């Protein structure tokens, strides 16, 4: 059952990170495959991300209330660490990101964090670390349609992956992972080799316009963030047409969504 448009379910805050790296064949983005037994978007290729936790607000307060250190920014750093083992953090008072040695030392705490047996705040405190939220560049903002029974208010961020951090899926929510060029991921989805939800496809299309991480981040810094809350237009053969704001920068207003969990109950990522 869908929620009544007159009384929509409150959308839960969430964050998603598009980790980028440059390779001779072009820019790649890190993506994970969701577990097949997860209720929403099972088996889909998505970006790392998840809901904002209550503890994220406490960490954000300790960062001084900067606009780039909100609970959503903290959630983005935490989820990136949880889901792929990349830790965008620094020693307090330092500019360099932590090295792979620190990340390896935190493998057991990370596993406990994924099991909800440890807190991100405690992990940071044990190593005197501060989330590097300033490295996150706002890329997109999507909200699940009002008619859906589960809704998310998701902010997408770009970040360059530290060279020496090994990105790898957690083996729980995500069962596989890959560094892949945006155009190749889109081709795989179009060819039926990958399952992909609507927001992921749209943001890969947007990301594929640039060929380097620097260019992608530069373009994102210079572009306004326009909130996207897809609206149903009509059912057509092969899916449904959805309307999004032209000003959001996706190159149009009406797009075909092949999978309704993409635009509906599943968290956009």
UniProtKB/TrEMBL annotation:
User: What is the superkingdom listed in this entry's lineage?
Assistant: Bacteria
The protein's required cofactor(s) are namely: Mn(2+); Mg(2+)
Q: Does the keyword DNA damage apply?
A: no
Q: List UniProt keywords, sorted A-Z.
A: Hydrolase, Magnesium, Manganese, Metal-binding
Classification via CDD domains = NUDIX_AcylCoAdiphos_Nudt19 (cd18870)
Q: Which SUPFAM superfamilies match?
A: Nudix (SSF55811)
Gene Ontology molecular function: any one: metal ion binding
Residue limits of the Nudix hydrolase domain?
10-202
Keyword Amino-acid biosynthesis found: no
Which PANTHER family is this protein grouped with?
ACYL-COENZYME A DIPHOSPHATASE NUDT19, TESTOSTERONE-REGULATED PROTEIN RP2
Annotated protein name in UniProt: NUDIX domain-containing protein
